[in-house]
TrEMBL record:
Swiss-Prot/TrEMBL catalytic activity: Endonucleolytic cleavage at a junction such as a reciprocal single-stranded crossover between two homologous DNA duplexes (Holliday junction)
EC number: 3.1.21.10
Region (Disordered): 180-211
Gene designation: ruvC
Subunit structure: Homodimer which binds Holliday junction (HJ) DNA. The HJ becomes 2-fold symmetrical on binding to RuvC with unstacked arms; it has a different conformation from HJ DNA in complex with RuvA. In the full resolvosome a probable DNA-RuvA(4)-RuvB(12)-RuvC(2) complex forms which resolves the HJ.
Main location: cytoplasm
Protein name: Crossover junction endodeoxyribonuclease RuvC
InterPro entries attached to this UniProt entry: RNaseH-like_sf, RNaseH_sf, X-over_junc_endoDNase_Mg_BS, X-over_junc_endoDNase_RuvC
Species of provenance: Actinokineospora bangkokensis
Length: 211
């Protein structure tokens, strides 16, 4: 599986492609940062992000796009810009019918370091080690994009098994409800041979026996 990992942002958007092999084997294909000038208009910056991401999608043809889920930050303006950049990436992937998965920062940290509270330096160190890179990826946005791709590769099998188990449980529940409905329906059926006897017909039958 080939994953395009994206650490969204307007000023710097980390972007990386990682291939997953058997087990937990991972290999870095490409990593970079898409930058937009802070003094440009918002629409222009989003267009530059879109153009850059679409070029990566066309060049590397990933199977899935993994994006960091945006959370509220102290700086509302920064959070909004990050969310807008993430939306542009998701739209570009959707136009190519690519699945888009969102991972929280703690999920990513836990996947690559074993701790959901790891700092950026620890994430960078582990990404460098896991991918056997000759030097640490810089800036941190690039390392985060690689970490996102690794996170998805390692979480996808678990997620798929959970989805299969949920689907199987839903099928069993549906079959069980159908059996209950059939049993209830069967229990209300009248005996074969005609309609149920009325009180008058039972009384007439009693007189006939006694006569």
């Amino acid at each position: 599986m080939r994953v395009l990992g994206v650490d969204p942002g307007l000023t710097r958007l980390g972007i990386a492609v990682v291939d997953g092999g058997l087990g937990r084997a991972v290999r870095a294909v490409a990593v970079d940062v898409i930058r937009t000038p802070a003094d440009d208009e918002l629409a222009t910056r989003l267009l530059k992000v879109a153009d850059g991401v679409e070029a990566w999608l066309d060049r590397h043809r990933p199977d899935v796009v993994a994006i960091e889920r945006v959370f509220s930050q102290h700086n509302v303006r920064t959070a909004m810009g990050t969310a807008q950049a993430a939306g542009v990436v998701a739209l570009a992937a959707a136009r190519r019918d690519l699945p888009v998965m969102f991972h929280t920062p703690s999920e990513v940290k836990a996947a690559v370091t074993g701790s959901g509270r790891a700092d950026k330096a620890q994430v960078t160190t582990m990404v460098t080690r896991l991918l056997r890179l000759t030097e640490a990826p810089k800036p941190a946005d690039a390392a985060d994009a690689l970490a996102l791709a690794i996170c998805h590769l390692w979480r996808a099998p678990v997620r798929n098994r959970m989805a299969e188990a949920e689907a199987r449980a839903a099928e069993l529940a549906k079959a069980h409800r159908a059996r209950l409905a059939e049993a209830a329906k069967s229990g209300g059926r009248r005996p074969a041979g005609g309609a149920a006897a009325t009180p008058n017909s039972r009384a007439a039958g009693s007189r006939a026996v006694g006569s």
